[in-house]
Amino acid sequence: MPIGDMVKPFKLEFSNRVIEHLGIKLYQNKPTNVVAEFLSNCWDADANTVHIELTAHGEDGRPTIVITDDGRGMTRDELTDEFLVIGRNRRTSPTELTPGGRLPMGRKGIGKLAGFGIAGTVDIVSTPNNVQRREEPKPEQRFYWLRFSLKELIAKSGSALAGSYEPEVIADGVDEAAFKALVKQSGHESAYKHFIDNVDAGKGGVCVFLRNTTLKKAMNVETLLQSMGRRFTVSMLRPDFVININGKRITPDQALPPLHDFGFGDWNNPIEEILTINGVARQVRYWIKFVSLQGSDWSIENAGIGVYAHGKIAQDRPFFFDVKGKEILSRYLYGVIEADWLDELPNDVVSTDRRSIDWDTDDTIAFQQWGNSRISHWLEEFRKWRGQQPKKEIITRIRAVSPKSTLTGAEEEALAELLSEVLPNLANDEEAKDRATKSFTEAWTHAPTRLLTKSLWEKVFSSLDSDSAVFATLVENLRKSMVPEAMGLAVTMAQRIAAITVMRRMIEQDKTETHLQRLIETFPWLLGPRWERLTANESIKTLVTQKHKPDEALGEWSIVGEKAKLKPDFVFLSDPGGLEELIVFELKGPEAGKTLQPVEYEQLGEYLRIIRAAYTSPKITVRGLLVGHDRGGFEEHNTRITVTTWSEVLAEARNLHVEYLRALLLASDPTATDARLRQIADFGGKETMQLLARLAPVGDFPNVITDMLGLLDEPTSVSAIVPATSSPGEVPAS
């Protein structure tokens, strides 16, 4: 059509190298971002329906992309004065709405260049849609078709001065019949099918045709469905804005990963809060859920919070408001926070590619601090919720693959919680699940390996997605790491057994109570291998004031007078690091014929009564153990006191350590040439090795023990290594 009295040509004007920096480089090989930019334009045009068509082979054998909307469309003046002006701010005020009442997504006026990041040719077809337009008089429905060539654009933008580019004009204000004829002549009738359908329905809109692309293969429809759903708030996917990709509509089910019901708010019912940021009240809306990994294809790169402004992503995932150290839990987090005011600030805080926010400005610092606090709270609540979920199936698997496991109920629960992180990643590989469960159960019986197991797991899954192969390697490495650790612990156990041997010799030689107290002060685990010593021969007042510190001014109980000077021999905690059970020991000499007396029994009872008065919490238990050569014939009426003998204490300590030593040796499966086995034999002595040989054999274990027995000479027995003197300082350190 001749221009006639319309003298203004179609001309794209730009500064030097703007096409390269804001078109090619910003969107190069990022087809998802390109589609998102054009989809934003469809929203701003008040479109009700958008069709995105992906083809694998265009005329040059390369994939093509067509985006068609039924929005307002553009007149000739709107094309020349608005669309072809790069960097035009679409808004006259921060809160300006589109004619259809929407908050606009576009702001910087550079999205029109996105197509050049992946396409050599970009066709723009437009006609006004008088169904969407409310102004009067309605513009005449004429058709405009502009073709942009990236090669020609680059040639124009290479000069040192500002450049201009006039696209090829295929149609300039032609009528409907002429336009349809041009479409037929183009050989791309399928690309313009949805646009012509809109025209036939009495509407109009815009069609963007990207061809001669740099894409190696067509975009995946399902992936794009998810990407578009996650790049724009799901609340935007409503009846008046329908997006179809190759005929498939984006729905919340497609856009969102599989989520647990637990969470805060919902995509169709977000929570609203008002924050005071830089002295201004700012509204945020959010919903937070947690991904159900069972049977899902989930990457940690998709986890975290997406921050949106005007319905469009402003801070892309993975993002956690700088919360650190909670990777195991945060990999489940998936949420949306809408903060429209981010796009309404005087200063631009959202990056050009809509991937990140500048969190170091006066307008965003308080928002970042709020998000950090909220995420910590959400993750902690999720941890509590997940801990309440039934783990019966995992516990049943633990017992099935390790029937001889001696894990307590609490240990099974803890291990099941760790495995609940592991097993879902193995999908339906039941054999791999059994191997994983068995390996972790065996490792769990050794406390240091338990810590190593959890540490390795956290490191692996905070940075990458797991699969059966990765996990199988991890399990094998864990198994191998147990060998040196177990042998090292075995040497330690043998050293402890040497100390127990010294205690036995002291008892046999009628050493005094003072001698034994000195030995136990050095090695408190002789009385309680699982306990932590609080005090040794200190006054009850010292014990109480260290832990309780009563305030007499507030009328709290305190110890005064002679009772403050009372000194139990030892006080232990049964749970190291906590305060749930106090065990008070009163020791009497092991000399033969020295029988425990009622007065000693009553004295211990007095200790318990005084300490109980200070520790009044019902969660704390106070009990006592009275140890001597022989039990007395007195009545044991105090249920909080246990009377035992030195022989029984000795037997329990020795049996426990020898059994642990045996378990460590079996886990290590050592050979007779292992130097550490010789150390174990030297420290433990012949009687320890003989006791080990009598225990249930596994593999060639008995032969190894027999070999070691043959190497043992009398001079290198424990009596030679650890002389039975009264000085406990000569006992090897454990």
Helix content: 25-40%
CATH class of the largest domain: Alpha Beta
**Number of DSSP E strands:** 21
The major pleated sheet works out as:
8 strands, mixed
Roughly what is the average pLDDT, rounded to an integer? 75
Tell me the domain tally: 5
Which stretches are poorly predicted, pLDDT < 50 over at least 5 residues? 459-469, 554-564, 696-702, 711-734
Overall structural class, as computed from helix and strand content, comes to alpha+beta
Rg, please? Answer: 39 Å
Helix count from the secondary structure assignment: 22
Secondary-structure map with pairings?
Elements: E1 12-14, H1 18-27, H2 31-44, E2 49-55, E3 64-69, H3 76-83, E4 119-127, E5 143-149, H4 150-157, E6 163-165, E7 168-174, H5 176-186, H6 193-200, E8 205-213, H7 221-231, E9 242-245, E10 248-249, H8 252-255, E11 259-264, E12 271-277, E13 280-291, E14 304-309, E15 312-315, H9 327-330, E16 333-338, H10 365-387, H11 392-401, H12 409-422, H13 430-444, H14 447-461, H15 468-508, H16 513-522, E17 532-536, H17 540-547, E18 570-573, E19 581-587, H18 598-614, E20 621-628, E21 641-645, H19 646-668, H20 675-694, H21 701-711, H22 718-721
Parallel strand pairs: 2-9, 14-16, 19-20, 20-21
Antiparallel strand pairs: 1-6, 2-3, 3-8, 4-5, 4-8, 5-7, 9-10, 11-13, 12-13, 13-16, 14-15, 17-18, 18-19
